Amino acid sequence: MKNKANWDSFVLTGCNTDPTDTDGLVSPIPTPPVEQAIKQTLTRGMYESFAWGQVTIYNGRAYISMQVTHSNPNTSSSSTYTLFTIFKDEAKPQFTGTSFTIALNAVMYVTKQSSNPTLWTNAVPIDCTIDVNGFVRINTLWQLSLPNDFCVQVCDSYALHNQS
Questions:
Q1: Phi-psi region of 59 (alpha: psi -120 to 50; beta: other; left: phi over 0)
Q2: Would you say which domain of life the source belongs to (predicted)?
Q3: Average pLDDT of every residue of the chain
Q4: Please, which residues have CB within 8 angstroms of residue 104's CB and are 6 or more apart in sequence?
Q5: Which residues make beta-bridge pairs with 152?
Q6: Contact (Cβ atoms closer than 8 angstroms) between residue 1 and residue 11
Q7: Reduced to 3 states, what is the DSSP secondary structure of residue 121?
């Protein structure tokens, strides 16, 4: 949003609560209350050494922001691999039709550098889906074999109901 005092600069909306407009900044756009959203912190799996993030449901959409680190010396999967599962029914996709999965944005980091903090490098975009049962999976078939240690970040949103 433009700063009225200096038209060459921008300010973030929602940062100015000056009702008398003494600073010359445009008043913020009202934002809906977040307390109506449902948040769920998720962790599930046998070998994840650390999983953190959340799923937020708001206004008919689910917003996923999760990171899962995996450490298993016996990893041999070269097909689909379940990262985590959403347990709350209201956060699962509830749609009908021929497609039973929704694609999600995901990045896999395949190199772990031992430092403090741990640094994951070599980012690879990877196929990731969520199905009607709430399983969030990566599909490594034809992309790469899963390494023993990897980190996956999933950050996306999806409509809870389809239009059919």
A1: left
A2: Eukaryota
A3: 72
A4: 64, 128, 129, 130, 136, 154, 156, 158
A5: 68, 108
A6: yes
A7: strand
The CATH class given to the 35-159 domain equals mainly beta
Question: Which phi and psi (to 5°) does residue 46 adopt?
Answer: -85, -35
Which is nearest to 123 in space by CA: 105, 136, 108, 138? 108
CA distance linking residue 141 with residue 84, whole number of Å? 18
Quick check: helix, strand or coil at residue 18?
A: coil
- Rounded to an integer, what distance in angstroms lies between the CA atom of residue 157 and that of residue 55? 9
Closest CA to 105 of 148, 134, 149, 136: 136
Peptide bond into 93 cis (omega under 30): no
For residue 61, which amino acid is it? R
| pLDDT tens column, 120-155 | 888 989 889 999 888 898 876 655 677 778 889 999
Which residue, 92, 87, 29, 35, is CA-closest to 58? 35
| Domain boundaries along the sequence of the chain | 1-31, 35-159
Which has the closest alpha carbon to 154: 121, 126, 118, 133? 126
Q: Lay out the sheet containing 80-85: strands in order across.
A: 80-85, 135-139, 127-131, 101-104
